[in-house]
């Protein structure tokens, strides 16, 4: 492809040689965003350009470079990964016959029906960057097309991406030029880590840390039919960035010492319970808010001073997000029963205290917009994103499983499973 006498070449990244050029490109993109006069969130990949995809089963990073004569310049990057996820579910009777959708109660209480997840191979695009001085020259589209070719060669049936609701250039590129459609609009909920610890005892909740084997068994037994559930959940739970999986139950049900084990818990669960896993993003990358006014920075600092000097007042403070900070990500959230929200709130408090110990700046979660647990997750509206946009594209003509139909046309369910490797 030739644009203004420039030859554009897209190739796989060379980790041994390309890191300085990638970092320079990211900085150029940051500088342009900072000039907008608005606060913006920037990511420091800590010298590892594939840190956000390297934990996926299959991944690729491409770079675009231009050549004019003998001179070369990196002008674009894109990252992608592939995994198998749940895209729907079907109900069958013990004799193997399918149950019609209108026969299944909303709460799935029909014990005669067996719920079976329908899976697909899903690709994810992230980290698309194009040099500010070379935009609107087809470089972004070329990067997307080439990584989609790699997706197809590796058996992916769908591709999706996520962006902010107000990121019009990104949405226009994917929806208008690359034929993606808006699919899901989850909420990113962010809570600052305060100078004081959160008191979780007042909720009268027992919190138990599960073994890796029990955590995997619980997720596969209870949540494998949730949309976007990753079928390599075992790989996620065994990852070094995973901080553990915790179950919360009413204090009168069990104490930490009397926990009966997962098998007995699943055979006769308490009326209300909740589960949550935690992921240490800080070891992979850090974030930083830039573009804030001096007045805003001073106001935030004053809250930290008061919170640190008078912790017994339990005054919420704004973390120093104007310097690089880490994130503790809460994922795999699920709950049942009338007291589920109270238990989730206690688990979130436990995550906050763990984040404080790890010196993270915030705790975060991403949930479906209609998830009833959304209101139970403590968060600050000004730090959160009420509507993240996920766009999806069907890559192949044939489907891996007929009953799901075209996933891109399916209605959203009450919850999604957000993979921590992609946050």
From TrEMBL:
Instruction: Report the SUPFAM superfamilies cross-referenced here.
Output: Acyl-CoA N-acyltransferases (Nat)
- Domain (N-acetyltransferase): residue spans on this chain: 8-201
Task: Give the GO molecular function terms.
Answer: acyltransferase activity, transferring groups other than amino-acyl groups
Coiled-coil zones: none
Q: Which Pfam families match?
A: Acetyltransf_1
> What is this protein called in UniProt?
N-acetyltransferase domain-containing protein
**Organism, scientific name:** Ficus carica (Common fig)
């Amino acid at each position: 492809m030739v644009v203004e006498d420039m030859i554009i070449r897209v190739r796989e990244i060379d980790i041994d040689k390309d890191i300085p050029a990638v970092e320079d490109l990211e900085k150029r993109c940051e500088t342009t965003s900072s000039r907008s006069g608005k606060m913006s969130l920037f990511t420091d990949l800590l010298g590892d350009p594939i840190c956000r995809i390297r934990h996926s089963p299959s991944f690729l990073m491409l770079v675009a470079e231009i050549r004019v004569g003998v001179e070369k310049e990196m002008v674009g990057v894109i990252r992608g990964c592939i995994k198998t996820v749940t895209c729907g579910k079907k109900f069958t009777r013990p004799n193997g016959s399918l149950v019609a959708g209108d026969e299944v109660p909303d709460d799935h209480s029909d014990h005669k029906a067996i719920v079976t997840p329908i899976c697909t191979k899903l690709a994810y695009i992230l980290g698309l960057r194009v040099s500010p001085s070379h935009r609107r020259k087809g470089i972004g589209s070329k990067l997307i097309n080439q990584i989609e070719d790699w997706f197809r060669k590796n058996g992916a049936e769908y591709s999706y991406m996520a962006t902010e609701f107000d990121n019009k250039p990104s949405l226009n590129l994917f929806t208008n030029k690359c034929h993606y459609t808006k699919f899901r609009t989850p909420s990113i909920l962010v809570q600052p880590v305060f100078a004081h610890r959160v008191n979780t005892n007042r909720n009268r909740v027992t919190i138990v840390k599960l073994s890796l084997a029990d955590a995997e068994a619980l997720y596969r037994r209870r949540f494998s039919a949730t949309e976007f559930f990753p079928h390599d959940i075992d790989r996620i739970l065994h990852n070094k960035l995973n901080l553990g999986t915790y179950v919360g139950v009413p204090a009168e049900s069990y104490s930490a010492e009397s926990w009966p084990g997962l098998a007995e818990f699943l055979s006769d669960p308490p009326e209300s319970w909740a589960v949550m896993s935690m992921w240490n993003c800080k070891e992979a990358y850090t974030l930083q808010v830039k573009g804030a006014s001096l007045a805003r920075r001073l106001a935030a600092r004053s809250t930290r001073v008061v919170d640190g000097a008078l912790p017994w007042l339990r005054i919420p403070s704004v973390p120093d997000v104007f310097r690089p900070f880490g994130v503790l990500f809460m994922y795999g959230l699920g709950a049942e029963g009338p007291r589920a929200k109270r238990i989730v709130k206690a688990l979130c408090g436990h995550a906050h205290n763990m984040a404080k110990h790890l010196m993270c700046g915030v705790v975060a979660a991403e949930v479906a917009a209609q998830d009833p647990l959304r209101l139970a997750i403590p968060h600050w509206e000004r730090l959160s994103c009420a509507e993240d946009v996920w766009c999806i594209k069907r890559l192949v003509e044939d489907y891996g499983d007929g009953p799901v139909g075209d996933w891109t046309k399916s209605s959203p369910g009450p919850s999604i499973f957000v993979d921590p490797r992609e946050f």
